[in-house]
Amino acid sequence: MNILRSIKSPKDVKALTDGELQILSSEIRGFLIDSVSKTGGHLASNLGAVELTLALHRIYDTENDRLVFDVGHQSYVHKIITGRREDFKTLRKLDGLSGFPKPCESIHDAAVAGHASSSVSVALGMARARTLSHEDYSVVAVIGDGALTGGAAYEGLCDAGQSKEPLVVVLNDNGMSIDSNVGAISAMLSSLRVKPGYFRFKRRYRKLFSHFPALYNFNHSVKEWFKRRLLPGNIFDDLGFHYLGPVDGHDLPQLEAVIGWAKELKVPVLVHVITQKGRGYSYAEKEPEAYHGVDAFDVVCGVEKCEKFGFADAFGSALTELAEMDDKIVAITAAMCGGTGLTEFSKRFPERFFDVGIAEQHAAAMAAGMASRGAKPVFAVYSSFLQRAYDMLIHDVSLSKLHVVLAVDRAGIVGHDGETHQGVFDVSFLCSVPNMAVFCPSNFAELRDMLGFAIYRVDGPVAVRYPRGGEGEYIQNSAGAPVALLREGNDVTLVGYGVMINNLLKAAQMLEKEGISAEVIKINLINPLDTEMVLRSLKKTGRLVTAEDVCAFGSVGSRLLAACAENGIALRNAKTLDLGNGIVAHGSVEELLKQKGLDAESIANVAKSFFKNPADVILGENDG
Ligand SMILES: Cc1ncc(C[n+]2csc(CCOP(=O)(O)OP(=O)(O)O)c2C)c(N)n1
């Protein structure tokens, strides 16, 4: 790792010869494989983007120029050469290096990223601000072909193409999203992937005619005229971009030449780069989807195939079973087939399975259309990505009371992916959607039942929300009622839902040892919220602790306090434990729960504190 060790900043990369750059590329790949195998993280996308990132850093100066990554999971190489190589030991760990670009981490990171398809818009905004303030720097967006399936990317491209702003969009086309890419744009990109030899010819031709600009311009206009009339269109040309490519994304000299050229053109340019996801690690080359995001693994053996059975798997097999008996059930995913547990369904019922690409808004509106015509659509989506579809939930689904089922995966704290991926807003935004029922199973058995209720007993929009990973100790099934009394007590009422119920039950045991008798109430249906059992309990105990790993606004705790006020119940003590209204960074779920005071011990301590100062009323102190 001699050359890599000597790279302290992008300036060092600029000083290397072609031969040294090749060695550096393979050293970086070695480092990525070794490092991610120890910490977990995004591997295949980064292995594919090594030469591209080096070329970008040779052309641009990311201290001044703005390099905007789409999604940002492919920014590891950028981090390595911008002085953060040593920090990879702490990748995605609490207080460690983020797995995504973060301007607060480095001046080289232009923008926060994590969700797909916004990079062109962000980059265009930067370019326009630059022009307005007469500053002199370049702006580049790097977007994958997967991210290009998201509608927001076209809003950006449509505007940017006509903007006349000097702006470079690099399309990193590896033919893959997390799974194989889908849709018409993906098909169009395949047709554009003509032999890179064509591009070499084009370069030589331009060089040859560079001394005869008038002749070149004449030839070019004639060629463009014929091309536009006779050849099938290239969407980027049509949107107003100067299209360069396709370029072999592993040929550094060629990449540098084209990106350098794109920079000089001073107009909106799209550089189409062909890369191989997983390049340089045979397992990842063969199965790039399995190496998109990985936990720690053995480099020699590769990632373990049999991961632990989790909520996503429980959902997938329950839905497949229901679909076996009901051919009206259809499953929808926005490019997250494997992650949401739908692989089995997609194989068993390919005609009833719809992967729409990274297009959550479209998925929600399409589900509305399906529901309006008698199908039973189940849209499986991660909580944080569902944020994209909020308007569709209100406008297309709720206003017509359509029976769309949302299977909201990764609800609550998700851990290592950090702030962009935490599923901490859905309780607040789903419960504000008119007519939306929201179920919260605490274990796999309840998930199966609640999914059944959602499909067969609810007539209107309905969500079933469940976390990343597996179930806890609480595996009884109390899904039959909207609210369940899990434990009787007289001194304090503990209320929660989902897997948080495990921490509440543990807290109750801890309190018992201190002579405090805790009543534990589990809410199965958080919207509409049936408060009767909780209020009855509070009349007895006078003390309330709620615990939720969601943001404070719109939390169940805040709604219970409002219900107390409306019903004239004056509590001696109350504390709503939640994530406040701050940002939850990366770390393990356990660490973050502890940090936020949502582990069993912290919950028990809050309840205990009531008995030291019985007159105190403490409300929601956990902001931040
Ligand atoms: C709005 C949104 N939906 C879903 C995801 C999950 N996701 C992360 S990366 C990815 C695939 C991105 O593919 P591409 O842009 O081609 O990048 P590659 O990994 O192939 O380099 C998806 C679907 C996301 N980040 N954002």
Question: How would you sum up this structure, described in words?
Answer:
The protein is of the alpha/beta class and about 625 residues long. The chain folds into three domains: about 5-195 and about 240-295, Thiamin diphosphate (ThDP)-binding fold, Pyr/PP domains (Rossmann fold, 3-Layer(aba) Sandwich); about 310-465, Rossmann fold (3-Layer(aba) Sandwich); about 485-610, Rossmann fold, CATH 3.40.50. It is about 45% helix and about 15% strand. It has 26 helices and 19 strands. The strands form four sheets. It has a seven-stranded mixed beta sheet with strand order 9-8-10-11-13-12-17, with helices on both faces. α24 links the parallel β18 (about 545) and β19. The longest helix has 22 residues, at about 20-40. It starts with a helix and ends in a 14-residue tail after the last helix. The model is unreliable at about 615-624 (pLDDT under 50). Thiamine diphosphate binds near residues 174 and 385.
How is the biggest beta sheet arranged?
Answer: 7 strands, mixed
Assess the beta-strand content as a share of residues. 5-15%
Oligomer: single chain
According to CATH, the homologous superfamily of the largest domain is: Thiamin diphosphate (ThDP)-binding fold, Pyr/PP domains
List how many beta strands DSSP finds. 19
Task: List bound small molecules.
Answer: thiamine diphosphate
Treating each run of at least 4 consecutive H or I residues as one helix, how many helices? Answer: 26
Instruction: List the domain count as a whole number.
Output: 3
C-alpha Rg, in Å? Answer: 27 Å
What's the CATH C level of the largest domain?
A: Alpha Beta
Global outline:
globular
Q: Per CATH, what is the topology of the largest domain?
A: Rossmann fold
Q: Which structural category do the helix and sheet elements fall into?
A: alpha/beta
Poorly predicted parts:
616-624
Strand order of the largest sheet: 9-8-10-11-13-12-17
CATH architecture of the largest domain: 3-Layer(aba) Sandwich
Helix content: 40-55%
**Mean pLDDT value:** 94
Distance between the termini: 41 Å
